[in-house]
Amino acid sequence: MQGTLKKMVSSLDDNQNVIYQLPVGDQLLALNPLIGQTIKITHTGTISCSHCGKKTKKSYSQGHCYPCMQKLASCDMCIMKPETCHYAQGTCREPSWGEQNCFVPHYVYLSNTSGIKVGITRHTQLPTRWIDQGATQGLPIFKVKTRFVSGLVEVALAKLVADKTHWQAMLKGNNEDVDLNAKAGELIPLIADALADITKTHGDDAIEPLQEVIQAIHYPINDFPKKVKSYNFDKKPEINDTLVGIKGQYLIFENAVINMRKFTSYEIVIEA
User: Fold this and answer.
1) Which residues of the chain are modeled with pLDDT < 70?
2) Burial of 80 by CB count in 10 Å (0-12 exposed, 13-18 middle, 19+ buried)?
């Protein structure tokens, strides 16, 4: 199978097990059945921008050429740090894109990855967001009316809990389950003043507290690596190794792991 990579597609079955597929060009490769088998993946040397399709020597912002990375709103810093949104200043790179993607409901959530962390995502991206980060549990705690507001809430919570996943720790094993509802009950009163300030500025409908059930997530993994080493197509274009598991956007092989999302837009040949 040959084609350009995109991030792995994931879904949950009725038992909360993650089912993975790898987009290779226009085809989808079912990955779960390949665990325990030797897989050969070869990067052909071609990288094509995921937006404009032009060939690029280097990938920026997960699969873009440099010009697209510079002009697209989806590649702007405010995507990573929503609290820095500059739409109101009239400087959004693509105002219509911002209106469609940022001025829509978002969730603020707690998840259990390498530890308890806070995060945000659009209302359409759960549980995908949790799966992509390798979370074994997830819980939405607020529904907010815009991405900017979600960033403000996240900043307040990030003073109390982590807002990033330590990917090496996440790949070494699963954390013990945590009562995320109880944790939310501890954290929310501590940011009451910040929430009041946000609603005062952005309206009483800006933040909606939620009472949700914790989502459990189980990954297809036979073995966790004791020491996490990474494959990198930019340094070594070929992987020939036994697949032992999948977690987040990582394929876990016997000898190293690879973040497939990092290599979006790379053309590969995969043999299994």
Assistant:
1) none
2) exposed
* β-strands 2-4, 266-271 pairing: antiparallel
Cα Rg of the chain, angstroms: 20
Check: pTM over 0.85? Answer yes or no.
yes
DSSP character for 115? S
- Give 187-198 pLDDT, tens digit per residue: 999 999 999 999
Question: What is the rounded distance in angstroms from the CA atom of residue 52 to the CA atom of residue 85?
Answer: 25
Task: Report the pLDDT value the prediction gives residue 250, as an integer from 0 to 100.
Answer: 98
What is the sign of the dihedral through the CA atoms of 69, 70, 73 and 77? Answer: positive
Secondary structure (H, E, C), 1-57: CEEEECCCEEEECCCCEEEEEEEECCEEEECHHHCCCEEEEEEEEEEECCCCCCECC
Residues 233/47, Cβ–Cβ less than 8 Å: no
